[in-house]
Amino acid sequence: MANQKFTTGKFNRRQVLRMAGYGTLGLLASESWPIFDLSAASQNGVADKKTKFLPDLDISLVARPAEVPIFPGEPTQVWQYHATVHTGGNDRVIELPRSYLGPIIKAHRGEKVRIRFHNATPEKSIVHWHGLHVPALMDGHPRHVVSKGESYLYEFEVKNRAGTYWYHPHPHGRTGPQVYRGLAGLFLVSDEEEQSAGLPDGEYDVPLVIQDRTFDSGNQLVYMSRNRMEQMTGFLGDLIMVNGMPDFTLPVSTAAYRLRLLNGSNSRIYKLAWEDGRPLIIIGTDGGLLERPVSRRYAFLSPGERLEVWADFSDSPVGFETSILSSPFEGGGLGSSNQMGRGMMMGRGMGQNQRFPNGAGFSIFRVKVTKSEKNDRVLPEKLSTIGPVRQNATDNFSSPKDFFLTMNHMQWTINGRIFEMEDVADDEIVRLGSSEIWQFHNTGGGMMQMMNMPHPIHLHGKQFRVIERSGVRHEGYVDEGWKDTVLLMPGERIRILVDFDDYPGMFLYHCHNLEHEDMGMMRNYFVKG
Ligand code: C2O
Ligand code: CU
User: Fold this and answer.
1) CA of 333 to the centre of ligand 2 (A)
2) Which ligand is nearest to the CA of 168?
3) How far apart are CA 82 and CA 63, in angstroms?
4) Secondary structure element (H or E) that encloses residue 42, with its range
5) Closest residue by CA, ligand 1 atom 1
6) Residue 485 CA: which ligand 1 atom is closest?
7) Gap between the Cα atoms of 14 and 29, Å rounded
């Protein structure tokens, strides 16, 4: 099985197991992690007896090469997640027709979910449930990668609030290319609080995954070279895809809609705004519904983040058209800098392009009113209960942890460090049951001003609250609700509050610019039981 060799670090395997709280389970003598035993067992069908885990939803999820008809002519070669439902009903897994994206998986809070992941791609891979609060062994850490033909068994209870979560691969150094080839999907969680909020549902609840891609003249995906300068910026495609489709138009009725937006791009940031100037009415963020709706002229959506938007077309006539735009913005980094861009311009296929640098303005998708009907939905005043951010109840109120996002010798780092599979530094250890303030500082590229870049920072395993931001101000942040990914523009600092209330073990935090992540702008943190 894919039992990863432990690289040298501060903890050897034995210590990690002990700290993770597995020491008392008598597993130290075992040569493999407990999960691999389960995984092997599930393959020959005896997992149920062995684990006593009775799933409400039990699916197989295969990552495999596939072909999709994106353009006329040649189909596009992609990698795709495909699901089969064993228990729980076929309506729990929704395929997007003609899309390379994986199916939308639906679960209710409190349900037990089993996912039998099988890797049928030629590369090592593992699945991360982005935003879900799951035990360390279920989180898709890169040390749990499985090779072609191998499987990994996930079993967890859905503890999250209702919200728009997602899943994607997480093998170290290859997350960017694997997501780019198509491996990603939504994971929607529902709960009673959400269901009583009175929000549009069914066909009025629309998931929209935004990504950018570059295709060659034979309709095939083009990623980027291994050129260091391109990796420093991250991949930027020249075609915007929504739910895996180019030139996307959403047909709507004269009714209210819940639009669930995910930025599933490798490194492109969107500055969302309505073309017709109406404000964005935001009802949800990464970790579910806000307490009450907020209104913004525009809102940033950086890679990994989600925003839920209330869109009411009841006053628009049939035939009315508008767009969700990405408005131009400054601070997008290297790709938005012309001097640098020109030198690198080699035409199609390069990560940087003149047409669509990060911060360029363009339409993401169109909305067209095609049908008249009676609308009976009104925007709820109260969406959910979230509660205040109690920062003086934290364990490190007077000495928050600092994380500096810096560049050293053409390498993005966190506190000067890069990812090592088993490495955890002293300041990356937290006590189970504690709650802490973490401060991230985007201090930029140092001497090289052109290397100032935005970094979307993501914590695994946890939803957190934003306490405050300082530095350059943008009104486009929606920091009001639960978050798992936050954008820091160059020069910005952010303070977040994280509760390490359960689940010991090793989790990741990293920049969700996938090329930055792949080059090592990622670290472990360890919750010590
Ligand atoms: Cu969505 Cu570690 O990532
Ligand atoms: Cu970054």
Assistant:
1) 10
2) 1
3) 6
4) helix 34-43
5) 130
6) 1
7) 9
Ligand 1 atom nearest 522 alpha carbon? 2
**What distance in angstroms lies between residue 222's CA and the mean position of ligand 2's atoms?**
21
Go through 362-387 and write b for each residue having 16 or more CB atoms within 10 A of its CB, e for each that does not: eebbbbbbeeeeebebeebeebbebe
Residues 6+ apart with CB under 8 A from 273: 280, 297, 298, 299, 324, 325, 326, 327
E strands within 29-150? 57-68, 76-87, 93-94, 104-108, 112-119, 127-130
The whole-model pTM stands at: 0.88
How far apart CA 83 and CA 36 sit, in angstroms, is: 21
> Which ligand is closest in space to the CA of residue 452?
2
Q: Which of 41-55, 172-186, 316-330 has the lowest mean pLDDT?
A: 41-55
Distance in angstroms (rounded) separating the CA atoms of residues 118 and 106: 19
Tokens describing residue 175? 């997350």
Lowest-pLDDT range of 30-39, 278-287, 372-381 = 30-39
Report the nearest atom of ligand 1 relative to the CA of 508.
Answer: 2
DSSP string, 281-303: EEEEETTEEEEEEEEES-EEE-T
Task: Report the run of H or E that residue 488 belongs to, with start and end.
Answer: strand 485-488
Coil, strand, or helix at residue 178? Answer: helix
Residues 201-234 have pLDDT tens digits of 999 999 999 999 999 999 999 998 777 778 888 9
Q: Report the distance separating Cα 115 and Cα 65, nearest Å.
A: 19
Q: What's the full length of the chain, in residues? A: 529
Q: Which ligand sits closest to the CA of 175?
A: 1
Separation CA 385–CA 131 (nearest Å): 19
DSSP 8-state symbol, 6: P
Q: Are strands 455-459 and 505-511 parallel, antiparallel or unpaired?
A: antiparallel
Torsion of CA 337, 340, 342, 344, to 10 degrees: -130
Nearest-atom number in ligand 1 for the CA of 166 is 1
Q: How far is CA 245 from CA 15, 96, 190, 240, 242, in A?
A: 47, 10, 26, 8, 5
Instruction: Tell me how far the alpha carbon of residue 234 lies from the centroid of ligand 2, in angstroms.
Output: 8
Binding pocket residue ranges, ligand 1, CB within 6 Å:
128, 130, 168, 170, 304, 458, 460, 508, 510, 512
Distance CA 528, CA 461 (A): 14
At 7 the three-state DSSP class reads coil
